[in-house]
């Protein structure tokens, strides 16, 4: 059977729909009302969206194809690569190291060490038996708590490429000074910025604002723009709102690339940005005992489809070993059983998602410019 004949059969069996046909069919289901009015919905920041999109709505959005997620070059990770990064809260160094090793032995790709106690600080003993060359090691702390980290990297992993981000809380100048202490070849992102969770548009605008603040501070201290850009990573909340989370991560990657071009860094690619997605614990009596499992899975799915680089799903109870295991395995199941790693960008070209990304980016950029003008 010829190729042409197969195509004709497919077209006969699955005729191409159009918006006019959808309107007629939908109108019958809603008692003759206008479906474009009844089925429209309002998103964050007052943005309005239709209940139906087709290719005619994307005539001016061809530029988004330049920001589709490219396949990973890592043969082990699959086309859609992300790092499973469980969080370990540090109250005791030995206990934290043991918990980290358990995560790594049970399928995690790395560890996010969080220094929640203000009196705790980094010590090489934390990473004893953990070979940083073969996993991602990341931190959430203040610069003072990680004062010895740069020296440790320099002495232990001289001229070796390491993977990880350092999410810093505190003063911008202190964060930049901390960043400059790292060897330029380490491969880390020592200027990680955690974005407070609000709504998607404000999250994106907030990320751009704090990102530019740190970028300016870094270049003012003599750091090259290219190095400063590659030192910056963002951590954002992934919620159970699937479409909004996907569009938020895609829009931030697009806009940060625009920032890089504005700073004259022409060799910076949108894929260079490291995005950390975090799913915070969520408890609802209505969905217990599996509420956080459902939320964490939905949020993780959304973040992966949106292009996150790193993923942390937090357990409902950090001291409960089974809840830790469940949260760690969310990422593994989405990779190994749902096969989300097989396609680099499964939503590339989606009419609805592209529209959300464009509208989020447009509104967030406007918010960012308004905030910048007030400084």
Q: Which key phrases capture this entry?
A:
single chain; 375 residues; alpha/beta; TIM Barrel; nine-stranded parallel β-sheet; two-stranded antiparallel sheet; 12 helices
Would you kindly provide a written description of the structure presented here, covering whatever features stand out?
- The structure is a single chain.
- The protein is an alpha/beta fold and 375 residues long.
- It has one domain (81-373): Alpha-Beta Barrel (TIM Barrel).
- 43% of the residues lie in helices and 12% in strands.
- Strands 3-11-10-9-8-7-6-5-4 form a nine-stranded parallel β-sheet. Strands 1-2 form a two-stranded antiparallel ribbon.
- Helix 7 packs across helix 12.
- It starts with a helix and ends with a helix.
- The mean pLDDT is 92.
Can you tell me the overall shape?
globular
Helix content: 40-55%
> Roughly how many Å apart are the termini?
68 Å
CATH class descriptor: Alpha Beta
Task: List SSEs in N-to-C order.
Answer: HHHEEEEHEEHEHEHHEHEHEHH
How many beta strands in the DSSP annotation? 11
**Structural class, judged by helices and strands?**
alpha/beta
Number of domain modules? 1
CATH architectural grouping: Alpha-Beta Barrel
- What is the CA-atom radius of gyration, in angstroms? 23 Å
Q: What is the fold named in CATH at topology level?
A: TIM Barrel
Overall pLDDT confidence: 92
Our count of helices gives 12
CATH-level-4 superfamily name: Methylmalonyl-CoA mutase
Strand content: 5-15%
């Amino acid at each position: 059977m010829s190729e042409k004949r197969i195509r004709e059969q497919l077209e006969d069996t699955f005729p191409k729909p159009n918006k006019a046909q959808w309107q007629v069919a939908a109108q019958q289901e809603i008692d003759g009302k206008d479906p474009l009015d009844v089925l429209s919905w309002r998103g964050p920041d007052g943005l309005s969206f239709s209940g139906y999109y087709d290719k005619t709505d994307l005539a001016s959005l061809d530029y988004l194809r330049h920001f589709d997620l490219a396949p990973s070059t890592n043969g082990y990770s699959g086309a859609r690569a992300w790092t499973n990064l469980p969080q370990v809260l540090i109250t005791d160094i030995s206990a934290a190291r043991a918990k980290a090793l358990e995560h790594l032995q049970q399928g995690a790709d790395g560890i996010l060490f969080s220094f929640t106690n203000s009196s705790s600080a980094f010590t090489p003993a934390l990473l004893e038996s953990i070979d940083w060359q073969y996993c991602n090691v990341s931190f959430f702390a203040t610069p003072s708590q990680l004062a010895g980290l740069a020296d440790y990297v320099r002495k232990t992993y001289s001229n070796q490429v390491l993977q990880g981000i350092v999410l810093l809380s505190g003063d911008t100048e202190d964060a930049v000074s901390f960043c400059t202490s790292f060897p330029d070849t380490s491969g880390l992102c020592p200027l990680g910025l955690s974005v407070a969770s609000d709504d998607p548009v404000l999250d994106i605008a907030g990320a751009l604002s704090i990102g530019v603040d740190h970028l300016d501070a870094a270049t003012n201290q003599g750091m090259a723009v290219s190095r400063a850009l590659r030192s910056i990573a963002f951590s954002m909340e992934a919620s159970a709102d699937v479409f909004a989370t996907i569009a938020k991560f895609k829009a931030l990657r697009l806009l940060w690339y625009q920032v890089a071009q504005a700073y004259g860094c022409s060799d910076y690619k949108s894929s260079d940005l490291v995005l950390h997605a975090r799913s915070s614990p969520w408890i609802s009596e209505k969905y217990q005992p599996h509420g956080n499992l459902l939320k964490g899975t939905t949020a993780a799915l959304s973040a992966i489809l949106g292009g996150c680089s790193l993923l942390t799903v937090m357990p409902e109870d950090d001291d409960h070993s089974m809840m830790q295991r469940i949260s760690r395995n969310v990422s593994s199941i989405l990779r190994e059983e749902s096969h989300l790693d097989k396609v680099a960008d499964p939503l590339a070209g989606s009419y609805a998602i592209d529209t959300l990304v464009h509208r989020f980016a447009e509104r967030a950029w406007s918010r960012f410019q308004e905030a910048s003008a007030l400084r």
